[in-house]
Amino acid sequence: MGTSSTERLRIVIVAGRGEVVRNFLFSDTLPRLAEEADVTVLSVVTGEGFVSHFRDHVVRVVPLRAFAPPRPVHYLRTLVENAHDRWLWSATAQNHWELRDRRARERGALWRRRLMKAAARLLAHRPALRALTALEQWAYWQLRPTRSFDAFFSELQPHLVFNGSHIHGPAAELPTRVAHRRGIRTAGFVFSWDNLTSRSRVFVPYDDVLVWTEGIRRQYQSIYPHVAPGRVHATGTPQLDFHFKDEFLLPRDELARRIGIDPARPYVLYTTGIDNHFFEEHRHVERVAELLGSIGVEPKPQLVVRTYVKGTSAEMRALSERGLPDVVFPPTLWDAEGSTPRYEDLELYTSLLHHAALGINAASTVSLELMVFDKPIINLRFDPPGSDLPWCLGFERHILFDHFRPVAESGATMVAASDDDLAGMLHRGLTDPGADAEKRRAFLKGFFGDLCDGRAGVRVAELLLRLASEERERQ
Fold this sequence. Notes:
The chain contains 21 helices and 15 strands. It is α/β, with parallel strands linked by helices. Strand 11 and strand 12 form a beta hairpin. Helix 4 crosses helix 6. The radius of gyration is 23 Å and the shape is globular.
């Protein structure tokens, strides 16, 4: 039966993790979609404090929960992940390989690890990976833990199902797989710039894939050449859009009042990493505080430490409670439900970046965000003072990972390889903030092209509307 081209589009957004709410429901994506489509949201986040911000743009919000993959699928996926890493052999994949060896030694399971490595080496080639991925998809479908999504999609009959994060959102897997199996067009957003080299193989089948940049689009095609080029789309990322909007910028005095700093003095913004990737980072924070206390720059700088909500160590929490002079740990306005940034956090975080004199992070996407505001940036290529970390757990490896190494080599950030480097770079960044400005602009332009402009959310929406319209016409 044909479908009228005047019939309103039906689009499902699958929010399997909290950041999808920020990227696609708090951004311009949802309002633009709602102009031409009836939008249903399947979400792990259903609290009124979140839904109230986008309720007017959706038909309904359906609670979503994660289902663990069936045990045979889990074992098969583990094998494929190891084989994929051994084939890809990116710097991050090599680190994963070493970390798995380390964990196997700790558990006394080296013989199992050796068997897995041997099998992975044998299967580390394109034909085997494609065949195993297809087997995983078939097995997952046959053993899926519920048929509820079959009935859901039969009733709704959407033109498009969009998963806002292809990784780290296990609750999104089952509905997206069911939609694809039922012949509904599916699209997935590659959540971050490092995912293709630092995360596992893409198991969920998508008809279309959205990525941050043209370079990442080419990278996706090189890893998955069976995907038609016209099915991988570079859109930018809506998570940066908020930094281009005045409504998310607090006046400096208001920001200072909210977080408890002196508005007349500059502050250095230290953003921490997740504690099980950046070990003993509280020692770096302590050292930065010491250096700023004796830096000889007037007015005397303050230190603002934004901790990573998904993983803050007990030591970092204890440090925040010590009341160090001129050091502030502002609240991170994320909710425990789905680890979701609250709408209020958008203006707090954007304002922290905007008003900072300098930013420090080990090796993070925050470096790109600081470039948007043309701020001096220090990355950390040495382990925290007093720590004794093996290289496979240390800070230098993050600088050398495939996605971040071009940043470090570009000169757009200052990369501290020692305590002396850190001291000198703090002084340089605070006294000559424009020194690397041209390199920062050049890196952003080279990396994003024209896709870092505050309009990624709209681009995503218009692409999804086009894909859904094509499906409506096809039906």
